[in-house]
Amino acid sequence: MKRKMPFSLSKEKSFYESLNDWIGDTLYDDLTEKGFECRDEQIYMAFQIEQALKEKKVLLAEAGVGTGKTIAYLLPAIAYARYTGKPALISCADETLIDQLVKEEGDIRKISDALQIDIDVRLAKARDQYLCLKRLDETVDGTTEEFAENVQSSLPDFVRGNLSMQSISPYGERSDYPDINDDQWKTINFHPIQQCAACDIRNRCGQTIHRNHYREAADVIICSHDFYMEHIWTKDSRKRQGQLPLLPDVSMIVFDEGHLLEYSAQRALTYEVQNNTLLNLLERIMVDGVREETLRLMEQLIDLHEHFFLLLRANSIGNTTERKAIKKIDELLSVGREAIAVSTALLEEFVFEGELYIIPEYDLTMVEEYLEQYIFSMELFTSENDAVDWVEEAEGEMTLIIMPRLVTDILKEKLFSSNLPIVFSSATLSVGQDFTYLLDSLGIDDFLSFSVESPFDYEEVMDVFVADLEEGEKADYVLDLLQEKQQTLMLFKSEQSMKEFKEKLGEGHKEIAFEGERELSSMIRDFQQKEISVLCSYHLWEGLDVPNDALTRVIIYDLPFPPQDPLFDARRKHAENPFKEVDLPFMLLRLRQGAGRLIRTSDDYGTIHIPLEGQDREMKNEISGIFPVEIQSPINK
């Protein structure tokens, strides 16, 4: 439903002229009277976005920390949504940052209160951020742990009872269960093999209710880059199947931390084949009464699949990274092709099984959908193509992953060829105000751009210490730093690096929290309220906004170089100078983002510590170039 404009429209002025006047009046006068800082950089950014709306173009808006980017894009976004009658979409780097945008003390709440505007903001989270009732039931039946029963007992009455569906309300998102750790959540959340369209309780499902809720948004929908990319890739196929797209039509898009969009686009096109999933699904439908030919093909496929994964494990090129390269020997490819042939024959037999109604309809539909995806994935793996593939293994579960190397053509066709105004907002979109790295990776040709510096006087409020350490000294150096109690964010380049530090730390450090121990946004909330003094994370390089004395020290435990894995190796192979074109720009952009967590307002202050050992010590000069202050050596205690 179209909502009232925040300013008056007249025949004498176009909408864009009226929007320009309103932005100026609001930022120069209305908000400053309410205690907001008047920042020239913020006002400039807002006017540039207004121009992008008028020209319906892509805008690369690089604005330093403290510019007030969120308010700069929110004002024109809300007005444009009401003018067009379609909500604006804000896409964040990940799911955690969605909650950051709508927190009580966040910018949306602040301008809503200051301008007395009722802003209709709704969240659209990725599907794995929602509870699955069927998986919850299976986990309750299959585990002795109490967490699943506790979740089940906390469900609203309408989910299991006979209450009228008129009393329904959104429920079941990840943030509703802050005390459950990530591993527990993965046993009860939505999994891609679930077939929501065939589920008999989908109308009472929290994910379905959330979907219906945000589709009615009037002003703003907030989602993650990953979810928006999933929407883009699945939009046409969902329409063909008679389903609604994951997101409704929108008036404009803001990609907050837009430099990360390429990786989300690649992840959305990822295909996965797990060693246990196929076996578990086929066992579900091996019920009494299934035809002999169908059973024979299922048993044959199970044997081929297990043989394939034995070969895959034997030919995975091992290293300490999460992703392992694959040596594609002839036998591996041959077994993969056999599995494709048997899967295709099995799908044909399922047509007859469906007519007999021996196998439960939901289970059969789930297996059919999975087999179609399995065949497509295995065909990609066994054929000559430009895809990148690797193996990941966690807690005994082995996964084959296939990903396209480049997504530029698809992005051009499905996103950048429209007349939709698109704003990329970040403090780090360029390398030395050169946007080539981002433009080439996304396939953007026609665009507007600007770059403005941060308004903060960093010399007065921030010190950067770079320690030159011998190999093996880093953990002890950081532990020594932590003896001085401060509100500290520790950033790691990977989950593995964080876990190695946690092992060295040992037991008995209740004041230190590690990502993954429980739901991340609840940990951030506790950190901001100083119930936690040290927050360790491998995800929070971007977007975290913890102002004032709730964060006074950032420790960059590792230089955030991209991993030596098949995905980045593919990018390196297509570069003339892999280190300068891939590794170094990635590291410097991410390092700038991590350091930017410290100073968020004009009242902030603190220190950044970067311990360097081994080859990283050679990066000292490169690191010094990204900071607005001179780096220092730590003072020996």
Automatic annotation (TrEMBL):
<keyword id="KW-0547">Nucleotide-binding</keyword>
<dbReference type="InterPro" id="IPR027417">
    <property type="entry name" value="P-loop_NTPase"/>
</dbReference>
<dbReference type="InterPro" id="IPR011545">
    <property type="entry name" value="DEAD/DEAH_box_helicase_dom"/>
</dbReference>
<comment type="similarity">
    <text>Belongs to the helicase family. DinG subfamily.</text>
</comment>
<dbReference type="Pfam" id="PF00270">
    <property type="entry name" value="DEAD"/>
</dbReference>
<keyword id="KW-0378">Hydrolase</keyword>
<dbReference type="InterPro" id="IPR006555">
    <property type="entry name" value="ATP-dep_Helicase_C"/>
</dbReference>
<protein>
    <submittedName>
        <fullName>ATP-dependent DNA helicase</fullName>
    </submittedName>
</protein>
<keyword id="KW-0067">ATP-binding</keyword>
<dbReference type="GO" id="GO:0004386">
    <property type="term" value="F:helicase activity"/>
</dbReference>
<feature type="domain" description="Helicase ATP-binding">
    <location>
        <begin position="28"/>
        <end position="305"/>
    </location>
</feature>
<dbReference type="InterPro" id="IPR014001">
    <property type="entry name" value="Helicase_ATP-bd"/>
</dbReference>
<keyword id="KW-0347">Helicase</keyword>
<dbReference type="InterPro" id="IPR045028">
    <property type="entry name" value="DinG/Rad3-like"/>
</dbReference>
<dbReference type="Pfam" id="PF13307">
    <property type="entry name" value="Helicase_C_2"/>
</dbReference>
<dbReference type="InterPro" id="IPR014013">
    <property type="entry name" value="Helic_SF1/SF2_ATP-bd_DinG/Rad3"/>
</dbReference>
